[in-house]
Amino acid sequence: MRRTDRHGEGVSTAAGLLALVTQPALRDELERVGAAVGVRVVHLGAAIPSRRAWTAATAAVLDEDAAASCVAAGLPRRAHVIVLTSAQPTPASWQAAVAVGAQRVLTLPADGNELVAELAAAAESVRDGGCRGQAIAVIGARGGAGASLLATALAQRAGDALLVDLDAWGGGIDLLAGTENIAGLRWCDLTARSGRLTWPALREALPRQRGVSVLSGVRRGHENHGAPEVQAATVEAVVDAGRRGGITVVCDLPRGLSDPVETALGTADLVVVVSPCDVRSCAAGAVLAPRLHAANPNVGLVVRGPAPGGLRAAEVAEIIGLPLLATLRAEPRLAERLEHAGLRLHRRSALAMAADRILGVLPARKAVAA
Asked: Is the CATH number 3.40.50.2300 carried by domain 16-127?
């Protein structure tokens, strides 16, 4: 690492953590945290960084004196600025943090875990170009509508994606994704987690197949088999981790609108209702649609054939009261193929084309919020 002059010139801080702290204990703790999140630490001590070094760094961690010095130097406000103290923050600590535009004031070692989470989030935003991924929630108008199948197809067509199974009694989306026998994290391992998770760590821990990371329940015979009590805070943390990682998150939802399901609906950029093309599904969808609209205004419909009574997709959409996103014709021998292997999409399959149309209506990716 090159040495810096007193103005921080000559130091490359891109994708690094800029540290302006003088206490040895704080410096040692920052080295430990930097190693934990995979970010190198650039120590400037009491030196004032240049504007270029200040804006290029992944994050900036300052002590109280450094915060005041950065304000006096006229450095611009930026995201991921943290003020550190070795004792409980004083009014002067908070004043310095507000003046420099810091998002957090943390005390070490007590707030060490929070510092790890904050810096991991900053590192993710740099690695993924600052882009925030999108979330899609998929739900059936009635049981057996094919929501899990479409959710799996959406995840596969999205490329790098996270497929989240929230239907504990749906048989397991891992059978469709082909991850039922792959070791990795399941809901039973995450039921008590909340707060911030990081996508790189989650991706490494989850079973993965065909570019899709899958979070589902466990198979019968596992020592923890059964339907875990998934918490809304855990769902929020998982979806947020994927979105901050810049990938597409697809949630397969049951029709019972519990707190975890409401959380997934509320965080989604798009809610997709899958309805077979029959009268019974129209009646069920017409009851469900207003409840979904109350949780999220961005709701659309996919109509799945065949149509035994001759209903048209446009008529189904009119009865249910949702805009038609795509139609999905029946695929010969699909059920037979699924009995022998997970879903394998061909480019010209009806599922692939419907998934591509749905992904095409998602809003443009957003920059990660500061």
From this structure: yes
Instruction: Quote the CATH superfamily of domain 131-361.
Output: P-loop containing nucleotide triphosphate hydrolases (3.40.50.300)
**At 47, which amino acid appears?**
A
pLDDT in tens, the chain (370 residues): 333 333 343 334 445 889 999 998 888 888 888 887 778 889 998 888 888 788 888 889 999 999 999 989 988 888 889 999 988 888 888 888 888 888 889 998 888 888 888 888 777 766 545 567 899 999 999 998 899 999 999 999 998 899 999 987 777 888 888 888 888 888 888 765 556 677 888 888 999 998 899 999 876 545 555 556 788 888 988 998 898 888 999 999 998 889 999 999 999 999 999 999 999 999 999 999 999 999 999 999 999 988 888 899 999 999 999 999 999 988 877 777 777 777 888 778 899 999 999 999 886 554 443 3
Using DSSP bridges, classify how beta strands 270-276 and 135-140 pair: parallel, antiparallel or unpaired: parallel
Asked if residue 276 lies in contact with residue 145, where contact means CB atoms within 8 angstroms, the answer is: yes
Residue-range domain boundaries for the chain: 16-127, 131-361
∠62-199-133 over CA atoms, to 5°?
Answer: 100
